[in-house]
Amino acid sequence: MTKISDEIRKWCADLDSDDILCTTATLYTLADRIDRELVELPKDADGEYIHIGDVMEWCDSGETLTVEGIGSDVLFYIDGENAEWTAARNKRHHHEPTVEDVLREFAYGLGVPVADSYVAAAATKLRLADDAE
């Protein structure tokens, strides 16, 4: 099977400007073929597109999965020896916690409200301490 985009490019290169009816029919045929053959990438809970290889997490538990396949609003992943599927719309892209995230969580656990400027300053100092080692 040829790529649809290559067919569109070839068709444009061969286009005769006097052949309007053929042009319309060809565009409808290509549009129908695109609808049949292509799958739109699903989006996560934040509206970000999901790709194969992305690491996603369940919003309620924080458990992660690696996307092995994509369907219509469905993700496929491997769990042990089994292939599983789950809805895409209630997952988020997993991001490793930053120094700032850890500091905010620590302060929150102590019940201490902390301004972003203090978190940023402390994170900078911690990064500098890490560089010295």
Estimate the mean pLDDT confidence: 82
Order of helices and strands: HHEEEEEEHH
Kindly state the percentage of residues in helix.
40-55%
Largest sheet: 3 strands, antiparallel
With strands numbered from the N-terminus, the spatial order across the biggest sheet is: 2-1-6
As for the number of domains, it is 3
Please tally the β strands and state the result: 6
Oligomer: single chain
Shape: elongated
Structural class: alpha+beta
Span from first to last CA? 56 Å
What are the low-pLDDT stretches, counting only 5+ consecutive residues below 50? none
Strand percent estimate? 15-25%
Brief characterization of the structure:
This protein is of the alpha+beta class and about 130 residues long. Helix content is about 45%, strand content about 20%. It folds into three domains: about 5-35; about 55-95, no CATH class; about 100-130.
